[in-house]
Specification:
12 strands; 12% helix; 2 helices; 174 residues; 36% strand; six-stranded mixed β-sheet; three-stranded antiparallel β-sheet; mainly beta
Length: 174
């Protein structure tokens, strides 16, 4: 018998017999119990541990799925202002590139966002990403450099297992 985890928000819902051969402990941060082989009618002894995880912070305290550095935000705002339209940035991935997948970025009208797109507001700037791309981009940081060599946008993607030398394509293991 294999059990990966049990979690509950109310420790009083966990009830166990008063059998002295069973071990049960309860603390404010974790719950665990063990049972010996003699207490189980079949198989091997097992151990279950559940650790309390604090509740997620409110919406204003959450880290966005995709973040921008100050340099990237300034440059994107400047590019958007030049077009003089109400635009958002669509970020995604597509098959191709040296490493298997490549990043895509383009401005589009906010009204073009689809119902299943993730809309990320970042310091007054809107980023749109389709759900499949977000699987590969979650936690990514977009940066910008105006250096003569190696300048432009760069992607710091924690999901990339391999990155091309140009930094515009990557491989990811799912």
């Amino acid at each position: 018998m294999a059990v990966s985890s049990i979690s509950t928000n109310c420790p009083s819902l966990l009830r166990f017999s008063n059998n002295p051969k069973q071990f049960f402990s309860l603390s404010q941060t974790s719950v665990s119990f063990r049972s010996s082989r003699s207490n189980l009618s079949r198989g091997k002894p097992f151990s279950i541990r559940a650790t309390a995880v604090p509740a997620a912070p409110t919406a204003e305290g959450l880290t966005p799925a995709i973040t921008l550095t100050d340099n990237a935000l300034k440059h994107l705002n400047m590019m958007r202002a030049e077009r003089d339209e109400d635009l958002c940035l669509r970020i995604g991935v597509k098959q191709g590139g040296c490493s298997g997948m490549s990043y895509t970025m383009d401005f589009e009208k906010r009204t073009n966002a689809r119902s299943n797109d993730s809309i990320i507001e970042y310091s007054g700037f809107t980023i749109v990403c389709d759900p499949k791309s977000l699987l590969f981009l979650f936690g990514m940081q977009l940066d910008y450099s105006d250096a003569l060599i190696g300048g432009g946008f760069s992607f710091k993607n924690p999901n990339a297992s391999q990155t091309c030398g140009c930094g515009k394509s990557f491989a990811a293991e799912m």
